[in-house]
Design brief:
The protein has 170 residues and is mainly β. The protein has 2 helices and 11 strands; from the N terminus they run βββββαββββββα. Strand 8 and strand 9 form a beta hairpin.
Length: 170
């Protein structure tokens, strides 16, 4: 914790703190990819892998009231794009899915467990499926305003997530 000249104490973001923040995420072209709403800020338990690693590392040691802009490289975000996660399958392998079109996301069973895949192309009878995260290989540009930092309750720590406003209910 850090005290300022008015004797107010500000908790520093560290392992197992509950952090509440507003954010805007943009791609390198400046297009908004995601943002928190003014009524629903993001609240998470710090140090538990609930944010991408690069953003969590940038928030470490900061406190409520701080605003920052950070760019997270793909390796510290959703990973590098992996061409081996793209495959073409015959349309008949996706039976039961009506009106298949590019951009659709499907759940797939793989040898590594269930995975979300995106239909990226359909040419004739061949459907291209991409198992990369949609943001893999992209730099992530965040504008963040930290609005609150507090110690997590014992129950939140035991459950591994935030309870109450901005978090999960029981």
């Amino acid at each position: 914790m850090i005290a300022d000249s008015s004797r107010q104490v500000f908790m520093v973001i560290e392992q197992d703190c509950v952090v509440t923040l507003h954010y805007t995420l943009r791609d390198d072209a400046g297009e908004v990819i995601d943002r928190s709403s003014s009524e629903r800020p993001l609240t998470y338990l710090h140090g538990r892998g609930q944010l991408i690693a690069g953003l969590e590392r940038e928030l470490q040691g900061r406190r409520a009231g701080e605003k920052l802009g950070v760019t997270i490289a793909p390796a510290d975000g959703y990973g590098e794009y992996d061409a081996t996660l793209v495959e073409q399958v015959p349309r008949r392998a996706l039976k039961g899915i009506a009106s298949l079109k590019p951009g659709m996301q499907l759940r797939s069973r793989t040898e590594h467990g269930p995975r979300t895949v995106t239909v990226t192309r359909i040419v004739g009878d061949l459907v291209t499926l991409d198992a990369n995260h949609p943001l893999a290989g992209k730099s992530l540009n965040f504008e963040v305003e930290i609005t609150d930092v507090r110690q997590a309750t014992e129950e939140e720590l035991a459950h591994g997530h935030v309870h109450g406003p901005g978090g999960h209910a029981h």
